[in-house]
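About this split. The held-out portion is used to measure sequence recovery: a designer receives only the structure tokens and must propose an amino acid at every position. Recovery is the fraction of positions where the proposal matches the reference. Here is one held-out target exactly as it appears in the evaluation file.
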């Protein structure tokens, strides 16, 4: 998960003799997190605005899960990345107190968002698997309400999980080093399980797609996918594009976060104090800590991939062009004027019979 296994050590002890190098690396880290925040917020915001404002995008119920992924990226860019940029700065008394008090909130928020992001990816892959593998079950059972319930359950479960961890850390008698090790192990295990589920699901989807394409090439019907409008079961080009985008996003997530969790697992193996309370491999821990910070920046690139991948979709691309060109703003006066004209015509039509009765038709 997003937990630094050596945070307690690294946040309180500065290695001697490398203050200038540390300041340079801190500056680079601040710039990297700031650029990521500046890019992540509007990129995911465009996906969310497109989903809210475009009726064609909302009609495709799979886009609800894409919008949920964009929500995770938007929260990361709005809260997590700026706080990491602040924490990477020089720690005088004021900034140290600020970073120390906000670290708990930052840690909790990024764990919740990260878990919700992975769970949403799993939901998206299962949704595509049911759509292409069991189309009649999908048509009867899977609708927008079911997906909304799944999205709500994802966020509720992750929030309850994080609150439970914080309560255990606050009121249990578990040693803090052991508890941080447990948090890190649980994060690595959850990511490994998510990677296994995504690999199996996407592998099965690819297998079904190839069976479709082979049946289409041989002009044979198949019942491994399609919908009620497609009785032969032949897969559509739009479905292939949606599956391709989903697979690319899953692969990008696993590739970008793999180095981070690999280094985290290595740090957990050596970040155990000896009997005297001292760390045995300080130099190795410091070098892994530097790699850990760099790979965390690489991992957060994943939250930009949602917008990069799904902007290739025609509906999202058209919506983005309309948003950037402010076509919604230009159309608004016309719509208001037409609405005002409609209201005036309705008022005149409703008032006409009353005037007709009072003035009298025979006088004309």
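Reference sequence for scoring:
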């Amino acid at each position: 998960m997003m937990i630094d296994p050596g945070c307690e050590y690294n946040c309180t002890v500065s290695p001697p003799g490398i203050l200038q190098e540390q300041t340079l690396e801190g500056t680079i880290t601040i710039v990297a997190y700031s650029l990521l925040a500046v890019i992540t917020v509007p990129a995911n915001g465009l996906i969310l605005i497109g989903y809210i404002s475009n009726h064609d995008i909302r009609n495709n119920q799979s886009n609800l899960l894409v919008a949920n992924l964009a929500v995770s990226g938007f929260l990361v860019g709005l809260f997590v990345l700026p706080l990491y940029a602040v924490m990477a700065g020089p720690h005088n008394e004021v900034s140290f107190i600020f970073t120390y008090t906000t670290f708990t909130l930052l840690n909790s928020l990024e764990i919740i968002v990260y878990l919700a992001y992975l769970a949403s990816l799993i939901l998206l892959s299962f949704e595509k698997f049911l759509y292409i593998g069991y189309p009649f079950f999908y048509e009867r059972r899977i609708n927008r309400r079911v997906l909304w319930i799944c999205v709500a359950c994802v966020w509720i479960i992750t929030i309850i999980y994080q609150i439970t961890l914080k309560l255990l850390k606050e009121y249990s008698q578990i040693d803090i080093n052991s508890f941080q090790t447990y948090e890190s192990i649980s994060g690595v295990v959850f990511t490994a399980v998510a990677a296994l589920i995504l690999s199996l699901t996407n592998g099965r989807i690819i297998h079904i797609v190839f069976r479709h394409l082979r049946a289409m090439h041989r002009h044979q019907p198949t019942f491994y996918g399609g919908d009620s409008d497609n009785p032969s079961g032949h897969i559509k080009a739009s479905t292939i594009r949606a599956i391709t985008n989903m697979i690319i996003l899953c692969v990008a997530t696993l590739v970008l976060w793999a180095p981070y969790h690999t280094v985290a697992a290595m740090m957990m193996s050596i970040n155990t104090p000896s009997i005297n309370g001292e760390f045995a491999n300080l130099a190795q821990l410091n070098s892994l800590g530097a790699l850990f910070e760099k790979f965390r920046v690489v991992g957060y690139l994943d939250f930009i991939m949602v917008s990069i991948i799904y902007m290739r979709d025609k509906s999202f691309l058209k919506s983005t062009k309309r948003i950037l060109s402010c076509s919604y703003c230009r159309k608004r006066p016309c719509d208001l004027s037409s609405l005002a004209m409609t209201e005036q015509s309705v008022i005149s039509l409703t008032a006409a019979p009353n005037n007709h009765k009072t003035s009298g038709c025979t006088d004309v």
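Annotator remark: DSSP finds 13 helices and no strands in the chain.
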